Amino acid sequence: MITAIVFVQADVSQIPEVAEQIAAIDGVSEVYSVTGSIDLICLVRVAQHEQIASVIADRLNKVPGVLETETHIAFRSYSRHDLESAFSLGS
Q1: In what order do the strands lie in the sheet with 40-46?
Q2: Which segments in the chain show pLDDT lower than 50?
Q3: CATH assignment of the domain containing 56
Q4: What is the DSSP string of the chain?
């Protein structure tokens, strides 16, 4: 599984609509409306690298109201759940 984190700047008057359209794209698992210099953070999860271009460049970037994106590809995933499982003594 390949995970990409996409920062999206959107037309402020269309943020809810943009978020809903992005969330409906196959391969997008989550969309968060956030504070700060970006408007939305999207998590894209796909099986192959080639699918990243299909989801982000071919679909997400073309959603009306998306002004700019910045994509980060995850190398590893760390979560509280993963860490607790790694150190569990089988209780």
Answers
A1: 28-33, 40-46, 2-10, 66-73
A2: none
A3: 3.30.70.920
A4: -EEEEEEEEE-GGGHHHHHHHHHTSTTEEEEEE-SSS-SEEEEEEESSHHHHIIIIITTGGGSTTEEEEEEEE-S----HHHHHHHT----
Q: Identify the domain containing residue 9 by its residue range.
A: 2-86
Average pLDDT, the chain: 91
Instruction: Establish if 11 belongs to a structural domain.
Output: yes
Q: How far apart are CA 52 and CA 82, in angstroms?
A: 25
Q: For 68-86, write each residue's pLDDT tens digit.
A: 999 999 998 887 765 555 5
CA distances from residue 3 to 13, 29, 35, 56, 86 in whole angstroms, order as listed: 29, 10, 22, 12, 21
**AA identity, residue 80:** R
* Domain-embedded: residue 28: yes
pLDDT reported for residue 67:
98
